[in-house]
Specification:
- By secondary structure, this protein is α+β, with helices and mostly antiparallel strands.
- It has three domains: about 375 residues, no CATH class; about 100 residues, Helix Hairpins; about 160 residues, Histidine kinase-like ATPase, C-terminal domain (Heat Shock Protein 90).
- α10 runs parallel beside α11 and α11 runs antiparallel to α12.
């Protein structure tokens, strides 16, 4: 597909305009998304850190209050008293439930509030204090106390079980060296809410003896309220994630169902973030912070067992980068509009400054190629209209005009030189023809006189022989002059062809009859293949007769005596007339074929020519085939020569310019090989 300069220029302008815009948009969107994601990531991490500190501070404060409550003298005294009572029961006191404990545990779910065991638990000094603490916090907290053997001794409300030694919080709290316990988030069976269990062993201030355990069940609705105060956007999530258990414990907003986000957190929790492009492609944007309960948190003199929590705050990637995409669309719209305006301005300037001058130069070059040498691209006077400015294209136009002027001068000079040459040849031919004619006439007159003298008995043999030589040389010179004049007349500045409509078959047969004497002299046979329906032709009959005569004469010259010469003519399907003349001579050397149609080219030394004779192998001046080619090309035809050591073929092709028609009374067709009518 050929692209013009206008399309190339349009493509270049579009490429130069849209490619930078596209690259700029990619850079803006990429850098904007990176900045936005990093900013949101920092914001989410700060929010997660705030949540984590709030959770840690709240639970640590609750544990401190529970510790103070567990070390009140009356709490310690009551718990010690219950231990003594338990030790005095039959069978002693152990962490294994006795018969009485099993009976109470079995009847516990259906035990009424006024039953003696339950009344002792709910109505004692410690229970009253625990109830006051619970009521002051609007029921968000429930407290209970158990002795060191796991038996329930006080509670603000009836718990679900009586024997606590099997519970994890009790086992951890009474373990050696433990002074406090904060559980992970569990389901509170009493209230069916998620809760956190805090437990503190009851002992004297500086003693090591454990008398019991004080437990607080803390409803975590306050965590949900804390998360809600952080203004969670639509689609965002805040959750508590247990990194050891690899599970989500609590979530506000739409929970992270994509395991990839949690896996990414676990992979990057050492630095708490990932690469921004991963966040963009995989989403969501994640911020995290560990819930740290102080450096080496201790309550009293022992260690505190705490959970391994992380607060994860996330926002969907689409929600984060939406402002960037909005800005990108705005920039793209404004950029495209601006580029279109600049494109129209640039196209107008390039149309005026580049395209129009180039098209003008192209038109002028085409006109010069057609021979119109008077075409100019620059005005002759400065006041005329012009497509060119004072730039490189203007210089090119100026040089183009100078070139056409110089070319026109050279052509005129060549025409004058050629005209002078033609006049010289015409004059030379005329001046040569005049004495030759005189020689021929004089020789004929002298021959007649000698014939008269011979009739009277005189010896005139030598004189007659001399006159024959004079006549032969004169005829030879006359043939040479005629060939030169024909060659001159075929020049491009000569008069046009004298075209008429004639019967091509009749012309070919006429040429063959003219050559019949030479054929008979050489005892050669001419095979004709010229159909009767050969169409009429519109052309110069005389020049085409010279064409066929010259080619046939060459075939006679270079074919051995007694050889066969073939001439065929026919019309092709593409409305052309083709003539083939072939001989059976020795062929033409390959190095001579290229120059065969040039004037004075015979393949041998010009000084050894034999113009006007048809002896085997005789050569003329080398003008015959030059005349053939010029006459054929003047008819828009072509001529080719194909030669082998077995003979030479001359192929002539002429275009038919008239509708097919034949003479009404055309002679009967001549059969191939039949030459009896010549």
């Amino acid at each position: 597909m050929r692209l013009g300069i206008r399309r190339k220029l349009i493509g270049t302008l579009i490429l130069v305009g849209l490619l930078p815009l596209a690259l700029s948009l990619v850079a803006i969107l990429g850098l904007g998304a990176r900045l936005r994601i990093n900013t949101i990531h920092v914001s989410l991490r700060a929010r997660a850190n705030t949540y984590a500190h709030e959770i840690a501070d709240r639970l640590q404060a609750e544990l401190d209050r529970l510790y103070l409550l567990a070390h009140l003298p009356e709490v310690v005294a009551y718990t010690r008293e219950q231990d003594v009572l338990a030790a005095g029961r039959p069978g002693g006191a152990t962490t294994r439930p006795g018969a009485q404990t099993r009976r109470i545990e079995a009847s516990w779910p259906k035990l009424p509030d006024n039953a003696a065991p339950l009344r002792m638990i709910l109505h004692n000094p410690i229970a009253e204090r625990l109830r006051l603490v619970s009521q002051s916090r609007h029921g968000e907290y429930h407290l209970m106390a158990a002795d060191r053997y796991g038996r329930l001794i006080a509670a603000d409300v009836k718990p679900t079980t009586y024997f606590q030694a099997r519970q994890a919080w009790w086992k951890i709290a009474v373990a050696p060296g433990c002074s406090g316990y904060i559980s992970s988030i569990v389901m509170d069976t009493e209230n069916h809410h998620a809760a956190v269990v805090l437990a503190v062993p009851v002992r004297e201030e500086h003693g090591r003896q454990i008398y019991g355990v004080l437990k607080e069940t803390c409803d975590i609705q306050w965590i949900q309220k804390s998360f809600a105060r952080g203004v969670i956007p639509i689609g965002a999530t805040a959750q508590i994630f247990d990194s050891r258990a690899n599970t989500t414990l609590f979530s506000v907003g739409r929970p992270l169902v994509a395991r990839g986000a949690q896996a990414r957190f676990l992979k990057n929790r050492g630095r708490m973030d990932g690469r921004w492009w991963r966040e963009l492609l995989r989403g969501p944007i994640l911020g995290s912070a560990p819930v740290t309960f102080g450096m080496g948190l201790q309550v009293g003199s022992g260690r505190v067992v705490v959970p391994h929590w992380n607060v994860l705050v996330s926002e969907p990637t689409a929600l984060v980068v939406m402002p960037i995409y909005t800005i990108g669309r705005t920039i793209a719209f404004v950029g495209v509009v601006l580029i279109m305006l600049l494109f129209l301005v640039g196209y107008g300037i390039s149309q005026r400054e580049i395209i129009n001058p180039v098209l003008r130069l192209r038109q002028a070059a085409g006109a010069v190629g057609r021979g119109e040498l008077n075409v100019r691209v620059m005005p002759e006077d400065q006041a005329g209209p012009t497509f060119f400015q004072h730039d490189e294209l203007g210089d090119l136009a100026h040089d183009f005009d100078n070139m056409t002027r110089q070319l026109q001068r050279n052509i005129h000079q060549l025409e004058r030189s050629d005209e002078a040459k033609k006049r010289f040849l015409e004059l030379a031919g005329h001046e040569l023809r005049t004495p030759v004619t005189t020689i021929v006439l004089t020789a004929d007159l002298l021959r007649r006189q000698l014939n008269v003298a011979a009739a009277e008995g005189g010896n005139t043999a030598e004189m007659l022989h001399a006159l024959d030589i004079i006549g032969a040389r004169a005829r030879r010179l006359d043939k040479m002059i005629n060939d030169i004049l024909k060659l001159v007349q075929t020049d491009q500045f000569a008069a046009p062809l004298n075209r008429t409509t004639f019967d091509m078959r009749a012309l070919i047969l006429e040429v063959c009859r003219d050559q019949s004497a030479f054929l008979a002299e050489r005892r050669q046979k001419l095979d004709l293949d010229v159909p009767a329906e050969l169409p009429f032709f519109f052309g110069d009959r005389e020049k085409l007769g010279d064409v066929f005569s010259n080619v046939l004469t060459n075939a006679i010259r270079f074919s051995p005596d007694g050889a066969a010469i073939h001439l065929a003519a026919h019309k092709t399907v593409d409305d052309r007339l083709e003539i083939l003349i072939s001989d059976s001579g020795c062929g033409i050397a390959l190095q001579h074929l290229d120059k065969l149609f040039e004037p004075f080219q015979t393949g041998e030394d010009m000084r050894h020519h034999h113009s006007g004779t048809v002896e085997y192998g005789s050569r003329g001046l080398g003008l015959g085939l030059a005349i053939v080619r010029r006459f054929v090309e003047a008819h828009d035809g072509r001529v080719e020569v194909r030669s082998t050591p077995q003979g030479t073929q001359v192929f002539i092709s002429l275009p038919l310019t008239l509708p097919q028609q034949t003479l009404p009374d055309s002679p009967p067709p001549v059969a191939v090989g039949d030459f009896s009518d010549i």
